[in-house]
Amino acid sequence: MQLTQCAVIGVGYLGRFHARKYAELPGAELVAVVDIDEQAARQSAQDCGCRAVTDYRDVIGQVDAVSIAVPTVRHFDIARDFLDAGVHVLLEKPIASTLDEARTLTRLARERGVVFQIGHLERFNAAFANLGGFELNPLFIESHRVAPFKPRGTDVSVVLDLMIHDIDLILGMVKSPVRSLAANGTPVLSDDIDIVNARLEFENGCVANVTSSRVSVKSERRMRIFQPEAYISVDFQNCGLAIHRIGDREMFPGVPEILREESSFENNDPLKCEIESFLSALRDGTPVVVTGEDGLLALETAMRISALVESAPSTGHARSA
Description:
Blueprint: E1 4-9, H1 13-24, E2 28-34, H2 38-48, E3 51-53, E4 65-68, H3 72-84, E5 88-92, H4 99-112, E6 116-119, H5 126-129, E7 140-146, H6 158-174, E8 178-186, E9 195-202, E10 207-213, E11 220-227, E12 230-235, E13 240-252, E14 255-264, H7 270-284, H8 292-311, E15 317-320
Parallel strand pairs: 1-2, 1-4, 2-3, 4-5, 5-6, 7-10
Antiparallel strand pairs: 7-11, 8-9, 8-15, 9-10, 11-12, 12-13, 13-14
Helix pairs in contact: 1-2, 3-4, 4-8, 6-8
């Protein structure tokens, strides 16, 4: 098998994990890690047995594919240069800082005929991925994604940092335009929004109630999906899945039995699955799981929610059609 020549751009907290996965995968050769922090680049390169580089432009022409894990404000410039050079790109979420930037990147990837995948990692959480064999027709969705405060990620609001994961999952499941939005939220420990609740109403009648916080006492990443004759609970944090369905018998006279199926996926490695999916798409032409268009739609919805909260009066509550 010919090895895919790869590099990781940005080896901060998340980029270091990307680099390790590429170094471990048999079909990939990690050529270099890139970071403007020379010490960080050298440390990651030493860990992974590759070259340390401080300017990403130096690896253009030397690699087939890159993961980009730099701060969001740098996404556009760096991803644009690689896409324009015909390099396949796995870009961490959110896709870009603005919708115009996101549209430009998706158009450029299409024109150059390269794989462009957005790093919405929860798509590869085994608990969620195993819903693929279950017919989904959500009527109501409730999600909670909360965590203690960490300085990392505060360059964007909690909507773009945490909530966008659930926005992406929900939009992919419902597959209907958003009819209206309501949201409230507030800063707590940073200068940006730290806790938000949003209500999304879709044209097909589905409603999603989404809460995200980065100022909570404990962590939770859970989604509950209600649909005709079924209730599904996805525990992203503990990688668990529970499906409750109406059975053929009766629990009591006139009351149908409830069948419960539980699954646990203890050895799931979502990042490895994400990178393997990316490499498979560029080698074998398998469908990209999270396309640039998916990233654009998630960003557009997240930015609508952020704008609602930021423009709200002191109550922090706003609604839009």
